[in-house]
Every structure is written in C-alpha cells, then in structure tokens.
Amino acid sequence: MEIINWKELLYPYAQTVDELLLKFRSLDKECRQLGIYSPIDSVTGRLKRPASILEKAGRKQISPDRIEEEIEDIAGIRILCQFVEDIPKVIEMVRKRKDMTVIEERDYITNTKPSGYRSYHMIIRYPLFTALGEKTVPAEIQIRTNAMNFWATAEHSLRYKYSGNIPQDLQDRLKNCAEAAFHLDQEMATIREEITNAQRLNEIKNNLVANI
Ligand code: 0O2
C-alpha cells in the first residue's frame, strides 16, 4: 500500500487557504475603511484532515494517487454573511475575480439538503506560485449566513460524534433547528436596513476615534 507524505501533499493547500483568507479578509477590511457596505461578515479557513480525506477517498473509491485530482475540498474557506441577501453579492465577487477560476457551483440554499443543510458552495481553481513553480490548486468556498453556519457547525459535530448515524430523534430535532435558523434569516431580512444603518454609524464613530 502506498504511503502518503501528508506534509508534502498538504503544503500547497495550506498555502492556498492562507492566501484566500488574506484576499477575502482584505476585501472586507477595505470596504469597512471606505465606508462601503461589506457583504462579508467574517472569513474562516480550514485544511481537510487526513482522516477525512481518506474517508472521502474510500467512500468515493478514489485511489491514493488520484486524491489531488479528485478531492476538491482539501483547501476550504468559509465566508459568513449577516443576511441571506449578502450571499449573491459575495458569489458575484468570487465570479468576477481574475485570480481564481470558478469551475463548479452547488446551491444548497435553493436546494436544501435532506439533513436541513443550507449553504452555497463554489469550487475554484487557484494558481499558486510555490518555491517549486506554479501549481493550480482546487479549493472550496462555502458561503452562508451566520444562522446557517450555527446550525451546520452543530450538526457537523453531531455527525462526527455519531460517525454519520445520528439517532432519528436527534435528526428530527436538528430538522426543527434548521427551520428555526431559516426563520431567523427571514426575520433578520425584514430589519436589515435598520441594522446596517446602525452599524454604518458605529463604523463612522470608530473611524473618527481611531483618527484622533
Ligand atoms: P470537513 O469540513 O471536511 O470536515 P461529500 O460527499 O458530501 O463529502 P461533496 O460531494 O464534495 O462531498 O460535497 P458537498 O456536499 O458539496 O460538500 C461537502 C462539505 O459540505 C462537507 O465537508 C461539509 O463541510 C459541508 N456539508 C455538506 N452537507 C452537509 C450537511 O448535511 N451537514 C453539514 N453540517 N455540512 C455539510 P465534510 O467533508 O463533511 O467536512
């Protein structure tokens, strides 16, 4: 059986996560400094764990030497938005970029998963300039609201704890929570303008204090 050199395999993906984090966080920071509304609330990133890569490879019958070609979410960033309405704006931001190419999009917001999972996924190809030369690295960008993320993070922990077999009773309650998160997003949308105006005012006050 082929032994995988994880350090060597994961290095370009780690570098990709770092660069994507920097780029999207800078965009958000720039908007705030210019006083322009930022559809990005926060950005996080992660590298898929070796155990999770091997589990996915096994489940999808991908041989170890095809992992780099076929597993597209080893590098992943997550862009969180305050409001559902911000999500299409972030999607457009990603589509328009010249430093990455979108190759696939999965809309689990319109097509909610049976689990109750809602999120928008974009698979990109990112050109990375390493010490050994240029390499195109696949990465997944997940875009979702804070409410969608609260639910997904909790459900993910339970799925991990129960090795994918969450007891039915818990699944039912999770479904209720997913509906509650959906309603929270709907309710927040109705007072969006009020909230964003208040936040803009705070931003201006903070900038004024910072400039004193
Ligand atoms: P992680 O972050 O690696 O620990 P799949 O067969 O689902 O693994 P596919 O077809 O590539 O793979 O993917 P999909 O469904 O577009 O994206 C998979 C990722 O989306 C998952 O990665 C989760 O981060 C998220 N996701 C998809 N469905 C659900 C769901 O029902 N609940 C939650 N909480 N997250 C989901 P990993 O590998 O699970 O996670």
From TrEMBL:
One of its GO terms (biological process) is guanosine tetraphosphate biosynthetic process. Residues 45-166 form the RelA/SpoT domain. Pathway: Purine metabolism; ppGpp biosynthesis; ppGpp from GTP: step 1/2. Keywords: Kinase, Transferase. GO terms for molecular function: kinase activity. This is Putative GTP pyrophosphokinase. It comes from Anaerotignum lactatifermentans DSM 14214.
